[in-house]
Amino acid sequence: MLENLKQKFPNAIYNKADTDDISEFVWFEDSMGSILGIPRFEITAEETRLLELLFPSSLDHTPFTTFSEPSWNAFLTEPNAPLPLTSWENVRFIHFKLSHADFSRPDFEDACLAFVPSDAALIWDNETEGILIETDKGEALSNNDLLAISSTLESDFYVKTRMFTGRFHLVSQDLHNHRLREKKCFALAQAELPDLKVTDLADIIPYILLNRQSDANTQWYINQILGKTRKDTELINTIKTYIECNSNATHAAKQLYIHRNSLQYRIDKFTERTGLDIRNFRHALTAYLLMLLND
Questions:
Q1: Cβ atoms 82, 70 nearer than 8 A
Q2: How far is C-alpha 63 from the geometric centre of its chain's CA atoms?
Q3: pLDDT tens for the 295 residues of the chain, in order
């Protein structure tokens, strides 16, 4: 049976000594005592649950994190709690809210963490709300990935989900402030964009600015999205011109006296730096408003 699994998962390994991090694999043991480790990024939560039925003596008791989750829970919820000991340098919070709590919490946690290609921790605020803490060591989950995860969770647990993706932050005491700000953003997204299952900071910036935020708050949003890019005057001018030309690349290139390929290169560069896809209306609007405020 394990040989057949090896054919389906060619990157699977038979020996834990063959990897530097056994937590990156889901481990199974057959009745003969042979084991197989399947990379977590290659196996779905549904496949994992099915194989656990076939291999009751699953060896996959390895935690997803290299630190104690209670330490993160204490740090994020208790005043003056110490920063957890971790090798992570940057993390982001994926906030979630569920329609009800009539499900197995351990099964739900296993399903969520199975989708994460790298170390992660799941912290609950209450029975239906919490955050997934994701590191930048692996490839970050995109909003499309989270939409797929949301659909799977709804199918498996019959629970509706809403999610909000924060930005990556340096692991420091400032995480408290970032988390609280993002939590408020998530609440606003639920109120203003009720039809979107997954939202991020770029989606709600226009609504935030309509609420007449203070200069200090506005600067936080500029820093979070534009970051160091706000000082790149050539790039900022290019993106502003492109948006003002109704996203017409040919017209914008003529206005800027550059080749269309050069324009596309700068647009890609802006997207890579900020995470804003300015071909998307909400992202283009957010980018334009923040650039005007930055001026």
A1: no
A2: 20
A3: 778 888 888 888 888 778 776 767 788 887 777 888 888 778 876 677 677 777 755 554 444 333 346 778 888 877 777 888 778 889 999 999 999 988 888 888 888 888 886 678 888 988 899 999 998 877 888 888 999 999 999 988 999 999 999 999 999 988 988 999 999 999 999 998 998 999 999 888 888 877 766 667 788 888 999 989 989 999 999 999 999 998 899 999 999 999 999 999 999 999 999 999 998 888 999 999 899 888 7
Distances (CA, A) of 9 to 43, 44, 47, 63, 176: 8, 12, 12, 22, 40
The domains of the chain, with CATH numbers, are: 2-54 (no CATH), 69-201 (3.30.70.270), 213-294 (1.10.10.2840)
C-alpha span between 242 and 253 (Å, rounded): 8
Give which of 160, 165, 111, 106 is closest to 133, Cα–Cα.
165
